[in-house]
Design brief:
By secondary structure, the protein is of the alpha+beta class. The protein has helices at 22-33, 51-59, 112-116, 138-151, 200-207, 255-259; strands at residues 9-14, 38-43, 70-74, 83-86, 91-100, 103-109, 124-127, 160-163, 168-171, 175-176, 180-188, 194-199, 211-216, 219-221, 236-240, 245-250, 271-277. The protein has 2 domains: 3-171, S-adenosyl-l-methionine hydroxide adenosyltransferase, N-terminal (Rossmann fold), CATH 3.40.50.10790; 175-277, Elongation Factor Tu (Ef-tu), domain 3 (Beta Barrel). The protein is built from 6 helices and 17 strands. The strands form 3 sheets. Strands 10, 11, 12, 13, 14, 15, 16 and 17 form an 8-stranded antiparallel β-sheet that branches. It has a 7-stranded mixed β-sheet with strand order 2-1-3-6-5-7-8, sandwiched between helices. Strand 11 and strand 12 form a beta hairpin. It starts with 8 loop residues before the first strand and ends with a strand.
């Protein structure tokens, strides 16, 4: 890879937020190390160390980025309420690098890679680093150097070694039976819309020529809307969003605030049942 042909785009997916100086410090370190870098905040307000949210965001955004973009994912801990781990345990002091869709992904060894794509079979590298103090601010002290190395066109093997012994985590899949389709919330956006793991393809394949009812707390939805304005203000609706997932929304209001149980909030798995009838 020729450096002159590689104008690096680096995205940041972190829980650093915007109130404190940490994010700005990471960015200025990237600029100092890679003067021609273009930095994009994919999402830097991940809440509750929710690695599932981080994976959802990158999975549905990566298609818009050019080849050789570098995605730095600085969210450490796994959300055990929404994922099921397999094989070895989480190691938050171990960092991984891989190629995915002709781009680079750098993340802690916390299941992020398989949450990004449960069918992932590409090469995974464990990163080298020397100082235990680098863990305290690993995005600045480790990931910045990794991004600089990649953008220089140098071999990955100079900073990492291939491994197959990394943590694997998977979202709970939606489930179809002859009578219904069961899914759950996998992401809640800032509008309070509830995005489920039921895809458009799966929905219509299961539905066939039948009618359906989406069962919600206090209401039923029996049609798929094209826009949020298809429902009256405050009414619940279902549509397939730009990511191709079934989304539950309230026109002009937060579905999350209205439909999630008050006493448990986002720690509760919002389960969704689609009933089929002839």
């Amino acid at each position: 890879m020729n450096k002159e042909q590689f104008m690096p785009i680096i995205t940041l997916t972190t829980d650093l937020g915007y109130r404190d100086p940490y994010l700005a410090i990471v960015k200025v370190c990237l600029i100092k190390s890679i003067p021609d870098v273009k930095i994009i905040d994919l999402s830097c307000d991940i809440k509750d160390n929710n690695i599932s949210d981080a994976a959802f965001i990158l999975k549905n955004s990566i298609q818009y980025f050019p080849e050789n973009s570098i995605h730095l994912v600085g969210v450490k801990f796994i959300n055990s309420a929404s994922t099921l781990g397999k094989n070895k345990g989480v190691d938050n002091t171990r960092y991984l690098l891989t190629r995915y869709k002709d781009q680079y992904v750098v993340s802690p060894d916390n299941g992020f890679i398989t949450l990004l794509d449960e069918a992932f079979e590409g090469k995974v590298y464990q990163l080298y680093f020397n100082d235990a103090n680098q863990h305290n601010f690993f995005i600045k002290d480790i990931f910045v150097d990794v991004a600089a190395h990649i953008s220089s066109g140098k071999a990955l093997e100079e900073i990492a070694s291939e491994t197959t012994d990394y943590y694997k985590a998977f979202q709970f899949s939606s489930f179809t039976s002859p009578e219904n389709l069961k899914g759950k919330s996998i992401y809640i956006d800032d509008f309070g819309n509830i995005i489920t793991n039921i895809t458009k393809e799966q929905f219509y394949k299961s539905l066939g020529s039948r009618k359906f009812s989406i069962i919600l707390p206090g209401s039923r939805i029996q049609k798929i809307s094209n826009t949020y304005d298809d429902a009256k203000i405050g009414d619940a609706l279902a549509l397939f969003n730009s990511f191709g997932h079934l989304e539950i929304a309230l026109n002009g209001k937060s579905a999350y605030k209205m439909l999630y149980p008050r006493d448990v909030g986002r720690s509760f798995d919002f389960n969704l049942i689609v009933e089929f009838n002839d």
